[in-house]
Amino acid sequence: MEMKDTVNSRAYRLIEPEKFEEVIIQHTINNNQVVVQPSLASICHADTRYYTGQRRKEALQRKLPMALFHEGIGHVVTSKSRSFSKGQRVVIVPNIPARRLNTIEDNLTSNGRAVKDNYLPDSVFLGSGYDGIGQQYVVLPAENVIAIPNDVPDEIAVLAELTSVSLHAASNVRDYLDDGKVAVFGDGPVGYLTAAALHHVFGISKENLFVFGAVSERLAHFDFATTYLVQHFNFREEANVVAVMECTGGAFSKSAINQAIDLIEPQGKIILMGVSEEHVPINTRDILEKGLTVYGSSRSTEEEFKRLMNAFQSQAYQHSLQKLLPDQKELIRNAKDLEIAMNKATKNKDWRKTFLSFAWN
């Protein structure tokens, strides 16, 4: 029988809302796996919802305790794959299909249908019921580790996970992107990264890329798109919008989705990306009358990360992404530091992301 290696990982586990506990987790290292020490993480709204207890009670009971965070990069410590070497900078792909954990052999659902990795019900996702990046060592299948090119800075590379979600969502409408105008609803980080991907990766011009938001100061950052305040726009009068990506979520989903239905051309495509805890009422009558297609899109796969590591080498793209970078990183040396950083993040009204810099030694 093959002897398997193990590694002990310090982890900052959220045990209840607003309380982290430092624990030691023992990981087994199997063949074709890579041990990564996280160096930089970015806080997502999903992390703050767990931290503040804004998830449904049953979800918190089911998923806690766990280490948070799924947007991150690090350095290879040990590799049982020839693809990586010690010390190599890598970005972490948080969605792990069950077959890579040796629990199933393929990507089929229980009834034999093949689905993409990010929609497999048996997959696990870092920081969502499965210990995330907030720990000293993360053991990952080699396919969930993507090398970072030398000319991509850490601060840009750590935006890959959130951008990959936008890239995956946009793939649902790529056949429409040359047929007319494309609109993005949402002036937060998700809306910004989605619009930036449409422009820099898919080549949508400023004239054909519309962004709708509610805060003029935020919209001013979208210099590669044509921007409008939702309060002053007549959505039924604009023509030739063939695809819409909704990036608002929460309480604003209702208005954004229904405005998108008013805006879009017959037989257009609407991509829903915003997460809402409550059900959202939408105008199904016009969906039917216009023959619209509505897609739900969540998470991503390693293919989007690979594509982004090439795209991120563009200086123009990096210039756009730099607008989301914070003035400073939050240094994390212990669980108390992490609680302080999360408290700041939940109160932060700034448009930019919050970065965590881990000091493990």
Account of the protein in words:
This protein is of the alpha/beta class and 361 residues long. The strands form four sheets. Strands 3, 5, 6, 9, 10, 17 and 18 form a seven-stranded mixed β-sheet that branches. It has a six-stranded parallel β-sheet with strand order 13-12-11-14-15-16, with helices on both faces. α6 links the parallel β12 and β13. α4 packs across α5 and α4 crosses α9. It starts with a strand and ends with a strand.
Structural class: alpha/beta
Radius of gyration: 21 Å
Any low-confidence stretches, pLDDT <50, length ≥5?
none
- Helix and strand run: EEEHHEEEEEEEHHEHEHEEHEHEHHEHE
Total count of strands? 18
Number of helices: 11
Mean pLDDT: 92
User: What helical percentage do the residues reach?
Assistant: 25-40%
Structural descriptors:
361 residues, alpha/beta, single chain, globular, 11 helices, seven-stranded mixed beta sheet
Short précis:
By secondary structure, the protein is α/β, with parallel strands linked by helices. It has helices at residues 45-52, 57-63, 154-157, 160-170, 189-200, 216-219, 253-263, 284-290, 302-311, 315-321, 335-347, and strands at residues 5-16, 19-29, 33-42, 66-67, 71-79, 89-92, 95-96, 124-125, 138-141, 145-147, 181-185, 209-213, 226-229, 241-246, 269-272, 293-296, 330-332, 355-358. Helix 4 (160-170) packs across helix 5 (189-200) and helix 4 crosses helix 9 (302-311).
SSE topology:
Blueprint: E1 5-16, E2 19-29, E3 33-42, H1 45-52, H2 57-63, E4 66-67, E5 71-79, E6 89-92, E7 95-96, E8 124-125, E9 138-141, E10 145-147, H3 154-157, H4 160-170, E11 181-185, H5 189-200, E12 209-213, H6 216-219, E13 226-229, E14 241-246, H7 253-263, E15 269-272, H8 284-290, E16 293-296, H9 302-311, H10 315-321, E17 330-332, H11 335-347, E18 355-358
Parallel strand pairs: 11-12, 11-14, 12-13, 14-15, 15-16, 17-18
Antiparallel strand pairs: 1-2, 1-4, 3-5, 3-9, 3-18, 5-6, 6-10, 7-8
Helix pairs in contact: 4-5, 4-9
